[in-house]
Write a structure and sequence with these properties.
The chain is an alpha/beta fold and 106 residues long. The protein is 26% helix and 23% strand.
């Protein structure tokens, strides 16, 4: 079993934009049943992320793109962030990570 945490991360510079507007835009990809534009609440992981932000009064808007594009859109700041990634040394240079929320076999 490979440890794949459902990790939320986003660019620090974007924190200002969503904090003042109470909405964050996250670019994600298809990974059923965890994320999918065709699932209720956009999937299990997307629902967990949205509910966590809602506890802080922040709404989440999702955009579905290929995973590599989601990563790039967040890194460039076109979208506020991306979600459902595992922590990797090359990723922590550009993003903040939450604690692992869910472990998934891969």
């Amino acid at each position: 079993m490979k440890h794949l945490g459902l990790i939320l991360f986003f660019m620090g510079i974007s924190l200002i934009s969503w904090a003042t507007e109470n909405t964050i835009q996250l670019a994600i990809g298809e990974w059923p049943p965890f994320t999918s534009k065709d699932l209720k609440y956009y999937g299990i992981a997307a629902r967990l992320v949205a509910e966590a932000f809602l506890l802080e009064g922040i709404q989440v808007e999702y955009g579905f793109f290929p995973w590599a594009r989601s990563f790039l859109l967040a890194k460039e700041g076109t979208w506020d962030g991306t979600a459902i990634w595992s922590r990797q040394p090359d990723r922590v240079q550009d993003f903040y990570f939450s604690d692992t929320v869910v472990d998934s076999p891969a």
